[in-house]
């Protein structure tokens, strides 16, 4: 039964909360806005058909000069099924440009467990290496979650249409678009907040994903909702936010 599939919500948290993308900034104007890299921790409540089924967290921290860590974790459960996931990106910011270094993914719970490691090398022409998987030429792709650093900058500039290339949490090369569709004031567990609403554009129209970003929180993700063939898969809302 659909009501007993929290792992579908777990995939939504891993894919869409992280938004599975990273932009390729190509214009000089894109580099004129500084990246909003204030370390923070955001906590989200996950809902399925209105029921509270779990929690997710995103934490950005500084490791050293120009080097940062972005960690995502989620744990959801419903009835006898469960899903626990984590993503960890290590990256640098060089000349206001996000440069990925390492990406780790882990999933456990009902169904098969999975681990993934991806490394990005700038030596030579550049390579993306998926552990126990394929090796790709690196043409500006990023990992499954650090696109948000660039997206914040692009939204702050008033951009309304963006394209992203990335390596997803399965170790596959993918491309999505992001389209701004509205501005809304949301009532969340965190409180009322003004947001920019975007839609994730895929090649397939079976799934619809909407995300809301808050300008007052450096365009941090504050809500995400996904549908598959008209059925809601999950709705994630910001519960708490603190800078570090």
TrEMBL record:
Q: Fetch the Pfam families from UniProt.
A: DUF3108
Q: What is this protein called?
A: DUF3108 domain-containing protein
Q: Which keywords describe this protein according to UniProt?
A: Signal
Under InterPro entries, the record lists: DUF3108
Top-rank taxon, per record: Bacteria
Question: Which residue positions does the secretion signal occupy?
Answer: 1-23
